[in-house]
Predict the structure of nicotinamidase.
Amino acid sequence: MASAKSTFVPALLVIDMQYDFVHGSLAVPNATTIIDIVNSLLALPFATKIGTKDFHPPNHVSFAATHDKDVFSKITIYPPGDIKEERALEQVLWPVHCVASTPGSAFVEGLDHKALDSVIYKGTHPEIESYSAFQDPWHLATTELPKTLEGLGVTDVFLVGLAGDYCVKCTAMDAADFGYKTWVIKDAVRSVSEGGSEWEEMEKKGIHIVDSAQVRKLVT
């Protein structure tokens, strides 16, 4: 859980700024336009700067090819070995992307990834999708992120990256559930869909939607 300290200890989470999400098999529209903004935020004095990566096995459950189905079709998935209706989740089937240790999983060229203090890997289990950088949707296992943030006494979590309607939103929702004051920097995020419903969902959760200019005033 978030630290009980009253001081402001901000963390920057750079979500999935990877080749496949910018130029590759699952490129998010206009993703290249946020690279410079993200780099400018990485130059600010956050207490920690953490990158996340999808790091999938080649037969990941989220891949259409794994199921011999059409890309962007949907299936029902369950926790491994626990096929109960109340545990069912709808899964969008994506093109093969961000396979572990392939060029598609690398941080996109131009991102100042050397400014990151650490990297969190997610989606590493073949049968479990995990949009959030905190934990999978069934809460079977958490990543190193909660422990890392707690160890540094972080109070506020700021998010940028890809994609706003999936991994950014889910990570922000979990950050709020873990007790952090949560901020999403809208001009440093791009989404798959143009609908924009993710912003309303996050605001209803109590997540603050800000722009990079506001964040510079907060952090410096």
Notes: The first strand starts at residue 10 and ends at 15. The radius of gyration is 17 Å. The chain has one domain: 10-59+104-219.
